[in-house]
Please model this.
Amino acid sequence: MIDDTMDFERQCNNEIQLMKKDLKLRKESLNYLNKVENYKYSYHFKWMGLPIIQYPQDIIAMQELIYLIKPDFIIETGVARGGSLIFYSSMLELLGGGKVLGVDIDIREHNRKKIENHQMNKNIILIEGSSTDENVIKQIDTIISENNLQKGLVVLDSLHTHKHVLEELRLYCKYVKKGSYLIAFDTIIEHFSEDNITNRPWSRGNSPKTAVYEFLKENERFIIDEEIESKLLLTVCPSGYLKCIK
Model:
């Protein structure tokens, strides 16, 4: 039997490049994201019983990255209801284990209990405090050192203001080595209509995406992986998948 893997990959890559160049399709994708935001679309999905509050497309992208990188630890800022922590933990478990560090300024007791009582909790370490607080960074450093963790993947999904995300990017980039990713979620805010970001501390011009662009001006270790965005079309992370190249 002839293995057509190379032909299949080549065909997929060609199709992704065509989607990347289809500006009308990309505009329609952004319009779709704007419309479904009115219904809190991302809130309607769960991972192993807990709300994950992510788009299915981004969940698949994260699965692909985790399998590709095989990190021995994943840091996520912004715990919310815990579904994403369970997702990362289950992926690491399938790959042989690892640690998931969940950081949030306020881990509500009912959410903490559901996370701690979940069958995938054994890989998870919860850290309560601001993701940019010096004591939180020290806790993370200690956990990494004591467990001899080497290869990290970082997901930033807490407060979405320019100032906060930029500080996170500067602080957490040290945990990402060449070939891995530093991911800023909800860069889509920069493309949302004003109706979808009212009564929020962030806005267009004051979002994770503006923070990403400023960070990239000062840090040459990272580039935007445009292929992920082109492949997904529907993503809350346009320009947010940052690949470490040095």
User: Anything to note?
Assistant: The two ends are 40 Å apart (CA to CA). The domain at 5-244 is CATH 3.40.50.150 (Rossmann fold).
